[in-house]
Amino acid sequence: MTPVPANVLVVDDDLDTCVVTSMLLSREGYRVTYATSVREALDLAFDGTFDVILLDNWMPEMSGVEVCRELRSHEVKIPIIFQSAAAYSTDKEEAESAGAQDYLVKPVDHQDLLTALRTATNL
After folding, report:
1. Counting CB atoms within 10 angstroms of each CB, which of 11, 48, 78, 88 has the fewest?
2. Average pLDDT over residues 13-38
3. Considering the domain boundaries, does residue 1 fall inside one?
4. Partners of 9 in the beta sheet?
5. What's 91's domain CATH number?
6. Cis before residue 107, ω within 30 degrees of 0?
7. Residue 55 phi, psi (nearest 5)
8. b/e per residue, 86-100, with b = 16+ CB within 10 A?
């Protein structure tokens, strides 16, 4: 029996990052949707059926940590993996405190991303 591909929501204000991440993950069998704004991301996360969210920390409207807190305050249980250039240990600690499952620093190694996704989705 072939496993059902996971649905991934990629959230990053940089369109190129969204497109490249989507292409890489699609080749691995993931179904990918991306959002380049916080509002769009929140609407999709609340209304969609995603198995995992890949979230940038530095976005213009609000930080990824704030997005994570907003989702968790509405009982959204989707695993959240940060992929961000914010590389300080305090960035990672804040994300985990807000409810993130993992924190990857950009540029993200493709294999590290796949491992984090498999762990988060139990595939």
Report:
1. 88
2. 96
3. no
4. 33, 53
5. 3.40.50.2300
6. yes
7. -125, 130
8. beeeebbebbbebbb
